[in-house]
Amino acid sequence: MACTVLAGCPSDDTTDNADEVGSTATETATDTADTATESSSSSSTTSDTTDTTTTDTATTDPTTTDNTDLPPPICGDGNMDDGEECDDGNGVDTDECTNACTIAICGDTILQEGVEGCDDGNMDNGDGCDSMCMIETCGDGVVDPMEECDDANDIDTDECTNMCTNAVCGDTIIQEGVEECDDGNDVDTDECTTSCAAAICGDAIVQEGVEECDDGNDVDTDECTNSCAAAICGDSIVQAGVEQCDDGNADPGDGCDGMCQLEARYVFVTSTLQTGNMGGLAGADAICQNLAQAANLPGTYMAWLSTSQPNSTPATRFTQSALPYQTVTGIKVADNWADLIDGSLDAAINVTELGAAPPAGTATCVANVSVWTNTTANGSIFNANNSCGDWTSTNGGSLWGYNNSVTNTWTIACQGGSCGWMEPIYCFQQ
């Protein structure tokens, strides 16, 4: 019976199979050997790698971890890291986060744009930059070291100027209510004095080109007149102690010569009427003086009247002139005092201080020509009872002369009447 060849069954191919098995074993051994060789090679490579790693490990910081390859935190990366107050990721140092990643504050010496006016690194006031980092300026109401004042307004004419200086005379600013002017100079003789007052006549400062003098007083008869002009003959002002007269011209023959010395003494009848109550001799003299001054007549004038008091007659109180007596119209009445009292006149005293006819008073012995006198032709008193209570009363009677007479009746003509009558008086220049 024949057999079917099955695996594992003995056959003639046993040798071949053995060869094949052997071949297989050989290949397996070879593969194993190759594997071993590769393994050995791998082991060698591993060993080399390990050596290299060991060497590198020996030179690396022991604290280094697997994160050593990440970048370190920096200010300006936009991330707020530990130790940073802020990080806005820009390079702008003047915004609210500085380039040092700190919040901008006054006093950090960095000028925060739009917020601070200055930043000097301190919180002190008075150094030009205040504690709020605002520039200290004139007008902020704070008196800084370089300022004298600071009233925080823009009024330049008050006591603190817009330059923050105290208003003073000479700063060219007219301080309201205090100064009249301010020209900013130290010239006292221009139109604005160094006291910042407008230059005027009478301020005792001679204004250059305007005034000839300025004595600071209101005396018109001294060497500097009230118009601040030097007194001269011909200015119509009689300079006391220098001139006897000043009729405003230098013409001789008009009673006042070219040297302002009298050529004669004026005499006139008053243009006014008065009762016997004239306020005494002083009052009567004042009437004469006032009328003479109003008529621009030179000199001093007294009334031709007498009282019972001592030295109260023309003979005792008048200046007995050596010059002629004349009317204001230039008519000579007498050559001198002696001629005046000798009982007759060269011409009647029949014009007023204005050169007009005398006024008509109350009719006495002769109408319209009577003049109060109670004085004889030699200048003495006629009767103590005829002086109307020394010319202070309207009671009693008096004595009159006639203004149209050249005899002694010019002064002694009519007696009696009433002290209440209205009559003119004679006035004589002294």
Characterization of this structure:
This protein has 430 residues and is α+β, with helices and mostly antiparallel strands. It has a domain at 265-429: Mannose-Binding Protein A, Chain A (Roll). Helix content is 17%, strand content 7%. It contains 5 helices and 8 strands. The protein has helices spanning 14-58, 280-294, 314-317, 337-340, 388-391, and strands spanning 265-269, 301-303, 325-326, 332-334, 370-372, 398-402, 414-416, 426-429. It has a 5-stranded mixed beta sheet with strand order 2-8-1-3-4. Strands 5-6-7 form a 3-stranded antiparallel beta sheet, with no helix packed on it. Strand 3 (325-326) and strand 4 form a beta hairpin. The longest helix has 45 residues, at 14-58. The N and C termini lie far apart (212 Å). Mean pLDDT is 85; it is low at 1-65.
Secondary structure layout plus pairing:
Elements (H helix, E strand, L loop, with lengths): L13 H45 L206 E5 L10 H15 L6 E3 L10 H4 L7 E2 L5 E3 L2 H4 L29 E3 L15 H4 L6 E5 L11 E3 L9 E4 L1
Parallel strand pairs: 1-3
Antiparallel strand pairs: 1-8, 2-8, 3-4, 5-6, 6-7
